[in-house]
Amino acid sequence: MTTPTKQSKEPRLLDVSHETLEMAGRALKEGGLVAFPTETVYGLGADATNDEAVAKIFEAKSRPTFNPLIVHVKDAGGAALLAEFTPLAQKLSRKFWPGPLTMVLKRHQESPLSLLVSAGLDTIALRVPSHPIAHALLEIAGVPLAAPSANKSGTVSSTAGMHVASQFRDGVDIIIDAGSCEVGIESTIIELSGNSAVILRHGAITTEEIEAVIGPVADNKADEIKAPGMMKSHYAPSIPLRMNVSPEDRAKGEAYLTFGPDAPRRAALTLSKTGDLREAAANLFTMIRALDQPGIRGIAVMPIPDTGLGRAINDRLMRASAPRGEGESQ
Ligand code: TXA
Ligand code: MG
């Protein structure tokens, strides 16, 4: 007699089509996991009102359950049903939604969302993605979708369907492959649950853009505990990464990831030849992945200016270069 073993089922990597969306919508309604593209990075989605489905996300990612998830909704109306939509939130949503801004708001007491998505907090992180496929999926699923970045906890986020497929051998039902993500770096997270606005994670929308709409905002740097997932080591490739490495400080065996017109010619890869931060953000995770190869001792990254989108890029590089084991995250 043979002992039954747990069946591992590989995810189905499917191109975008009406059938794919229908199938994905069904899988979500049945409590399954669907990875889907957003304009920032791929998300690993589940019905945010279904406890068991949300629990599967934590399991598939090996994510600590104290780290809450972002919930994706169709529009600001959908968000207002789930959380207290303050005047500041309304202003920001009018300007940046759909798009890569996540707002942390007070959860409505009677919210139908699983308690697991907030990991015990009385707030909820909400965003309306602008990617047409994410939108179509929200429409067809008919429920808010909890979706962290589609990568194993602590590793580099996925900016292509293949990146997701290479990390999840089982536990995920469908991966909707729509090619590369346009922005390539995660959404900006802003906390608005009190009267003030605090940036919890630098991301695709710059602080300058936000301040142009609502005036000065605070930076969470001094109080990292507030975003439970923002711990030191994250976005980490399997080989060491060093940031702010000028051309003369490169070490032997390291691949040099450069930026800007002054970059030495013999670079492994270049984030942006012209020094365009938007292009660099879009290339960041894909290039780190491409250099994370056996035979390469480490990745050295040329200095990136710490303004605008550069702040989000440097935040990711700082965590990717932090000593491993210093807290895991997202
Ligand atoms: O661009 C993005 O935001 C992508 C796409 C898929 O939407 N998602 C993403 O999710 O980056 P994730 O789970 O990798 O990062 C979410 C971050 C975590 O650091 C988590 O701690 C924080 O959001 N977060 C979620 N809910 C929160 C809450 N209620 N209060 C404070 N931080 C929260
Ligand atoms: Mg993440």
The Rg value, from CA coordinates, equals 20 Å
Can you summarize the main beta sheet? 11 strands, mixed
Mean pLDDT across the residues is 92
Please give the share of residues in helix. Answer: 25-40%
Uncertain spans, ≥5 residues at pLDDT below 50? 1-6
Measured by DSSP, the beta-strand proportion falls in 15-25%
Number of strands: 15
What is the CATH superfamily of the largest domain? DHBP synthase
Bound small-molecule species: threonylcarbamoyladenylate, magnesium ion
**Number of DSSP helices?**
9
Write down the CATH class of the largest domain.
Alpha Beta
Describe the structure in your own words:
This protein has two domains: 12-219, DHBP synthase; 241-321, no CATH class. 28% of the residues lie in helices and 17% in strands. The protein has helices at 18-29, 51-61, 76-82, 87-96, 132-141, 161-167, 207-214, 277-291, 309-321; strands at residues 12-15, 34-36, 43-47, 70-72, 101-106, 123-127, 145-146, 174-177, 188-191, 198-201, 218-219, 241-242, 254-258, 269-270, 298-301. It has an eleven-stranded mixed β-sheet, with helices on both faces. Strands 12-15-13-14 form a four-stranded parallel β-sheet. β10, α7 and β11 form a beta-alpha-beta unit. The termini are far apart. The model is unreliable at 1-6 (pLDDT under 50). It binds threonylcarbamoyladenylate and magnesium ion. The site of magnesium ion has 4 residues, from loops.
Task: Record the SSE blueprint.
Blueprint: E1 12-15, H1 18-29, E2 34-36, E3 43-47, H2 51-61, E4 70-72, H3 76-82, H4 87-96, E5 101-106, E6 123-127, H5 132-141, E7 145-146, H6 161-167, E8 174-177, E9 188-191, E10 198-201, H7 207-214, E11 218-219, E12 241-242, E13 254-258, E14 269-270, H8 277-291, E15 298-301, H9 309-321
Parallel strand pairs: 1-8, 2-8, 4-6, 5-9, 10-11, 12-15, 13-14, 13-15
Antiparallel strand pairs: 2-3, 3-7, 4-7, 5-6, 9-10
Helix pairs in contact: 1-5, 8-9
